[in-house]
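During the no-cost extension, the postdoctoral fellow (Dr. R.K.) reprocessed legacy sequence entries with the updated structure-token encoder. One reprocessed record is reproduced below for audit purposes.
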Amino acid sequence: MISKRFSREEIIAQFHDGQTIMTGGFSFHGCPELLFDALVESGARHLTNIALDASAARLMHLGIFDRVIIAHAGSVPENLALMASGKIEVEFCPMGTLAERIRAGGVGLGGVLVKTGLGTVAEKGKERITFQGEEYILESALRADISLVRAATADHYGNLTYAGTARNANPVIAMAGDLTIVQADRFVPLDEIPPEHIVTPGVFVDMILDHETGGGC
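Re-encoded structure tokens follow.
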């Protein structure tokens, strides 16, 4: 039987300096904290983080991110000081636009046309496009070397479900990683998840942290 369960050590080995890392979670809910621990233990540095907000704040404080692309940082005032000091380069993006850029990366689009930010600082350095008589900003799609995802349940093939608002951006982030690694709260046998309940099909998932080797699934 094919299984995507991997040990903590095998997952730690996937992280390297200079990577772009997408992280699920919003307002510290639905965060893959055990995978954050693995990333820290890997020793990787000079990373770029893409996330809806600063839920990976403790990683920012450890100095492993040189750059972040986020929609919101106000939940962690200390992060604002880091950004203001210039120690971390930050690209703010409207939350709906950011989620759509990640989704676009996951489905193979080059970018999306949005009206949000027209005539504001959010438009700086971006291309404005006229389509059918309407003005839009062209926002580039986003992908990552590694996506870190938190799920409620996972099976051997990597099919995932999510719990309530812990779902947040995890499904689109799972689609947009060249390598997608999952922390699941519960591991279930094949066929236990009804097909109509699967949110993220296993085709998008590469590795699942194995609870028997320190994962906590």
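The chain has a mean pLDDT of 91. The chain has one domain: 5-188+199-210. The remaining legacy entries will be reprocessed before the final report is submitted.
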